[in-house]
Write a structure and sequence with these properties.
The protein has eleven helices and three strands. The chain is mostly helical. It has one domain: Rhodopsin 7-helix transmembrane proteins (Rhopdopsin 7-helix transmembrane proteins, Up-down Bundle), CATH 1.20.1070.10. A three-stranded mixed beta sheet has the order 2-1-3. GO terms for molecular function: G protein-coupled receptor activity; olfactory receptor activity.
Length: 317
């Protein structure tokens, strides 16, 4: 009854106001330039990974199949968040339609859940490659890889839909969001009803999509490290470790920021800290991932050289 009275005292929300990263015009101009460059690098880098994995036959392996899924996910994530933020800075507007805000909330959680599961699958791929190399091609055949990828996307969709469907009916309070895009923890603070059930579901969902995959990733890498230490030659150990180091770096950055954002009680959230963490996993991570996977990866560098050479031959250069 009390919740009904509170709802009636608030007008229906048709749009939200995003306060952004700063209200200082000079700083906004710097943010616009920096985020434009980061967005361009993120999209170009991830598109390069997808293109190379598609065109170069030497990259037609399970590892690069899953890496292409991760690259596609990164493009979707950064494209959902950054262009709207840049548009708002350019036009001086801080509003975002209710429908677009809903899309941002749902898709960012969906993509975050999918990234957790894809990183878990990639860890399993590395485990099989190092701990059971003779059966690697049999275990990680193309059909299995497709099933694992489809399962990751499908499970993410299902675990995202239920808790978020409960969130929107209670958003009848203020419409000002102290963030640069619509994100679940920020929206929960706008509720005019008791959000304990939603927070419990968010925490439970975070355990399933963050902690369970992270536990399996850790188990995989414990087994991988044990197998690497048994390799006789230092060169062999270095080669085996180099195939996992990039993935370990990405896992550390992603899970660290994700746990900070979604595993904390709502009372401990700080808008300023939340925005900094969100910049990391929504903007910086999609830019860093292709760089991390390519800088120390001879296969990617070799594939890039071969594709560029084919382009030169095609264009007669």
């Amino acid at each position: 009854m009390k919740a009904d009275v509170e709802r009636k005292n608030h007008s229906v929300v048709t749009e939200f106001i995003l306060l952004g990263l700063s209200d200082q015009r000079e700083l906004q101009e710097l943010i616009f330039v920096v985020f434009s460059l980061v967005y361009a690098v993120a999209v170009l880098g991830n598109l390069t990974i997808i293109t190379l994995a598609s065109l170069d036959t030497q990259l037609h392996t399970p590892m690069y199949f899953f890496l292409s899924n991760l690259a596609f996910l990164n493009i979707c994530y950064v494209s959902l968040v950054v262009p709207k933020m840049l548009t708002n800075i350019l036009t001086g507007s801080k509003s975002i339609p209710y429908e677009l805000c809903a899309v941002q909330v749902y898709v960012t959680v969906f993509l975050g859940s999918a990234e957790c599961l894809i990183l878990m699958v990639m860890a399993f791929d590395r485990y099989v490659a190092i701990c059971n190399p003779l059966r690697y091609n049999t275990i990680m055949n193309r059909r299995v890889c497709i099933k694992l990828a489809v399962a990751s996307w499908t499970i993410s969709f299902l675990v995202t839909a239920i808790p978020l469907s409960l969130l929107w009916p209670v958003l009848c309070g203020p419409n000002t969001i102290n963030h640069f895009f619509c994100e679940t923890p920020s929206l929960v603070t706008l509720s005019c009803e008791d959000t304990s059930q939603i927070e419990t579901m968010m925490f439970t969902g975070s355990i399933f999509t963050l902690m369970v995959p992270l536990f399996l990733v850790l188990v995989s890498y414990i087994r991988i490290i044990q197998a690497i230490l048994k390799i006789g030659s230092a060169a062999g150990r270095q080669k085996a470790f180099s195939t996992c180091s990039s993935h370990m770096t990405v896992v550390t950055i992603f899970y660290g920021t994700g746990m900070f954002m979604y595993m904390q009680p709502q009372a401990q959230h700080s808008p300023d800290k939340d925005k900094v963490v969100s910049v990391f996993y929504a903007v910086i991570n999609p830019m860093l991932n292709p760089i991390i996977y390519s800088l120390r990866n001879r296969e990617v560098k070799g594939a890039l050289g071969r594709v560029l050479q084919r382009c030169k031959v095609f264009w007669g250069l």
